[in-house]
Specification:
The structure is a single chain. By secondary structure, this protein is of the alpha+beta class. It has one domain: Carboxypeptidase-like, regulatory domain (Immunoglobulin-like, Sandwich), CATH 2.60.40.1120. It has two helices and ten strands. The strands form two sheets. Strands 1, 2, 5, 7, 9 and 10 form a six-stranded mixed sheet that branches. Strands 4-3-6-8 form a four-stranded antiparallel sheet, covered by helices on one side. A hairpin with a 2-residue loop joins β1 and β2. The N and C termini lie far apart (35 Å). The N terminus is likely disordered.
């Protein structure tokens, strides 16, 4: 189900310590248990992620369907990798297979912290955090309509 998102995210976590790596499967299982099977309806969703008008060059976006009155199981979340030009395409079970139509919470996860040259990292040296760390979508809830959707995400500092 979420294997493509997990594999993509795990591949990005190669520089993080072992304890953080253990949290990824736990988080993915938690998301799956909250998501359930939901609707089989699907809407294509693509867009660009920007910060101060400039494309964001990495990270992940996740759209978590919001439960509405009378619908306790709104469906499975959809995720997509943010490419170097800021573009993303959402998928639930495989890349690009879309998202559940309806209201969704937009979540952005920045790329992991990295070392300039991992082969020269010194003991106790911390990796450089992503320039997008701590940023959040300006609009935290979006409407996904049946059919094709272009949903651009502007990142801002929390509280902005």
């Amino acid at each position: 189900m979420f294997i493509f998102a997990y594999a993509t995210l795990l591949g990005k976590l190669t520089m993080l310590d072992r304890s953080l790596r253990m949290l990824v499967p736990v988080a993915m299982i938690s998301l799956l248990s909250l998501a359930g099977c939901g609707s089989s309806n699907s809407a294509s969703v693509r867009g660009k992620v920007t910060y101060k008008g400039t494309p964001v060059t990495g990270g992940m976006v996740l759209f978590q369907p919001i439960a509405m009155k009378g619908n306790n199981n709104p469906g499975m979340p959809a995720a997509g990798e943010v490419l170097s030009d800021g573009a993303y395409v959402l998928g639930r079970e495989s890349e690009g297979d879309g998202a559940v139509p309806g209201r969704a919470k937009a979540i952005y996860t920045p790329p992991p912290a990295t070392y300039a040259d991992p082969t020269k990292a010194k003991p106790g040296e911390l990796p450089t955090p992503s320039p997008y760390a701590g940023l959040v979508p300006k609009t935290s809830e979006v409407e996904i309509k049946p059919g094709g959707n272009t949903i651009d995400i502007e990142l801002v500092s929390p509280g902005a």
